Amino acid sequence: MTSAGSGCAIVIGVGARQGIGAAIAVRAAREGLHVFVAGRTASSLERIVRGIAGDGGTATAVVCDSTRQEDLEQLFAQVGERPLRLVVYNVGRNIPAPFLQSDTTLVEGHWRRCVLGATLTGQQAVRRMLAQGEPDGHRGTILYTGASASLRGKPMFAAFAAAKAGARAMAQSMAREFGPQGIHVAHVVIDGVVDGDIVRSVGGPLGRLLIRNKGADGALLPDAVADTFWAVHAQQRSAWTHEVDLRPYAEPF
User: Fold this and answer.
1) Which of 90, 94, 131, 197 could make an SS bond with 21 (beta carbons 3.0 to 4.6 A apart)?
2) What is the pTM of this model?
3) Handedness of CA 86, 2, 133, 238 (dihedral sign)
């Protein structure tokens, strides 16, 4: 595999530093890749870029709607002549809703974020990776962040589970089609609560209580998750992983 320092990465779905997307971006930058961090909020992206720069890495912030083909085309165009080594699609809002109250807007929103955006991103990544070629047979890695809902549906999460399961099936199809052409496609299931900004801040006191009740290392730490994403990317092609599931040591499954 070509040295990490000679190319770039794209991470889509980057928010606060204490989140999976940002943690992956920081890890990729530490490994020598120039990272394009893409998300919906410019201020959050700029904070991540400044943090990466302070750590000695390089990054570019790109405000992007992952469900809009034009936005994704513009994002990938910024890669320029750099070899594209890694693409991570880390998008999906875990919004609970009773089945009978899951209206068209909610169902379509999940589908657009989890399936449409994942598909459009995969198409952009595959086209570029096939075109750039690699002498060692590894053209690049495309990683998708999954969830417990990718594998099983639960009450209140029918629409979300349907969308995440669809993204998982799409990743399987991509891996079978493009793996033999040197593109490593993998799906990472996040099976547990993430000790990140969304739960602690957006969830308010209940979110913080949930994390506290989990106990030490009872919730997934974003930086530890990022370690696994990088490990999958760095695999030698004779032993590629397609799917790995991550959960805290005490999480039931």
Assistant:
1) 90
2) 0.91
3) negative
